[in-house]
Amino acid sequence: MHWNLLAIGKPKLAYAKEGIEEYAKRMKGFAPVNIDYLKASTREAESALLRQRSEGCFRIVLDERGEEPTSRELAQKVALWERESVKSVAILIGGADGHTPELRQSANWTWALSKLTLQHELALVVLCEQIYRAYSIKAGLPYHRD
């Protein structure tokens, strides 16, 4: 399964950029990952671009209204998608104003990393770490502890 992480705006915080790079590098041992940073604009234009760029992928929208799985539940979802032969996943991280209702409705799954609103750079670090954690759980590695 190939992971496409699409985020509005490039990381400006050095520590966030390093965290994103670290977990993206770790994830490559399990599955290919591509991170694309898209230009900030209006909410409508951002959502339209995210929708266009994720066409043909299993679309996951990060949104505070989404489901909040545990790390083990996320690992189970990843395993299910693999069994269902999902080839490409696109995870969409919106800009400061979030996603349009139309984009949220087009999602195969809406995922909330937290009930807290996270700045997009921090959300991307948490996202990368949780995908890595899901794969480490599936692989039986000691990274995750209950």
List keywords for this structure.
alpha/beta, 146 residues, globular, Alpha/beta knot
Q: How many helix segments?
A: 5
Shape category? globular
Query: Would you tell me the structural class of the helices and strands?
Result: alpha/beta
In CATH, the topology is named Alpha/beta knot
Major sheet attributes: 5 strands, parallel
Counted beta strands: 5
Please state the average pLDDT score.
95
Query: What strand line-up does the widest sheet have?
Result: 2-1-4-3-5
Rounded Rg? 14 Å
What order do the helices and strands follow?
Answer: EHEHEHEHEH
From the 3D coordinates, which CATH architecture would you assign? 3-Layer(aba) Sandwich
Which percent range describes the beta-strand content?
A: 15-25%
Low-confidence stretches: none
Q: Name the helicity range.
A: 40-55%
**How far apart are the first and last residues' alpha carbons, in Å?**
26 Å
| CATH class category label | Alpha Beta
Number of domains: 1
CATH superfamily placement: SPOUT methyltransferase, trefoil knot domain
